[in-house]
Specification:
Elements: H1 2-27, H2 32-35, H3 39-66, H4 72-82, H5 84-101, H6 106-126, H7 134-155, H8 167-182, H9 194-220, H10 227-237, H11 241-251, H12 256-263, H13 267-281, H14 286-301
Helix pairs in contact: 1-3, 1-9, 3-4, 3-5, 3-9, 5-6, 5-7, 6-7, 7-8, 8-9, 10-11, 10-14, 11-12, 11-13, 12-13
């Protein structure tokens, strides 16, 4: 059983590492100009959650396997405690992202949820509900409260772009994170492999949430620079939808390869769309096309 547990833990740790790499590649593939300034808060949250995962959760799980000394668990607990600020700030960043995305008063939500989480943790501590590991219990209480607040924010979304068929998955993932934290206060916490399972589920929900948002937002949240000018250009010169996507990318300063990656097209297809756009708008290169978009936009605003 000990060997099975060790293999399971290493498999979970490897899975989390893979999710970290995949999440970073997806989250940092898009710039603010493509997904807006709100993306930076989700990026910060993902990084801080990753730091907390490896610094705190996995240190508690794996450290005792490397060092067989009397106080190794106490050392692991101290290391885990040092990672607590990363966890709390990550939750704040995620809540701030949701508030900014939904155009709600961020300060009110952050102060209110933080006070509620602190009160819940203090009440549990005073009531003797923390068990043998007060810090670990506090993490779960705070995490569950913030996950609940995030779920409510997404459920009350004013932004129509989050009411498509993918918004339900964001809600489900947010609620799942809260349930994962709540599981620490159930009989599941006594299971032999609960801690590695918790770490994997906790990180899977956060990784999937961030990645799903980015891919959901590609078609709905993106507000490229010069969008009004591009739309007027489409109407004036009869540019097709896919050609317009390429024009937006050109105006945003992206290379043909970056446009191809974003639109899932071949490099040659992007070049062909760009060439046809040049012909339709009577320009010769990217610089002239950008100048034309700006001119059309300025005229439309007059």
């Amino acid at each position: 059983m000990n060997a099975i547990g060790a293999v399971t833990q290493w498999l979970g740790f490897t899975l989390c590492l893979s999710l970290s790499v995949a999440g970073i590649l997806v989250l940092f593939r898009y710039r603010r100009i493509e997904l807006g300034d709100n993306l930076q808060f989700l990026q910060y949250s993902f990084i801080l959650i990753s730091v907390f995962l490896y610094y705190s959760l996995w240190s508690q799980i794996l450290l005792p396997r490397f060092y067989i000394v009397d106080n190794v668990e106490q050392v692991a607990n101290v290391i885990s405690g040092l990672g607590t600020p990363f966890f709390f700030i990550a939750l704040l960043m995620q809540l701030l992202w949701a508030c900014r995305l939904q155009k709600r008063h961020a300060i009110s939500w952050i102060v209110g949820v933080s006070m509620l989480a602190s009160f819940a943790a203090f009440s549990a501590l005073s009531g003797g509900l923390m068990g043998q590991d007060p810090l670990r219990s506090a993490w779960s209480i705070v995490g569950a409260v913030f996950a609940g607040a995030l779920t409510i924010l997404l459920f009350l979304a004013k932004d129509q772009t989050l009411r498509d068929n993918r918004s339900q998955y964001l809600l489900m993932l947010s609620a799942l994170t809260g349930l994962v934290h709540f599981s620490y206060f159930t009989a599941l916490a006594d299971a032999p492999l609960y801690e590695p399972a918790f770490a994997v589920l906790f990180y899977c929900s956060h990784s999937a949430f961030a990645v799903l948002y980015v891919y959901s937002a590609k078609a709905s949240q993106v507000t490229p620079v010069g969008i009004d000018g591009v739309e007027h250009l489409i109407q004036k010169f009869g540019i097709s939808k896919r050609e317009a996507d390429v024009v937006r990318g050109i105006y945003a300063g992206k290379t043909n390869q970056e446009i191809a990656n974003q639109l899932f097209l071949s490099l040659q297809t992007v070049k062909d769309h760009a060439s046809r756009s040049y012909q339709k708008t009577f320009v010769k290169n990217r610089g002239q096309l950008i100048a034309l978009v700006r001119d059309v936009e300025s005229r439309a605003q007059q």
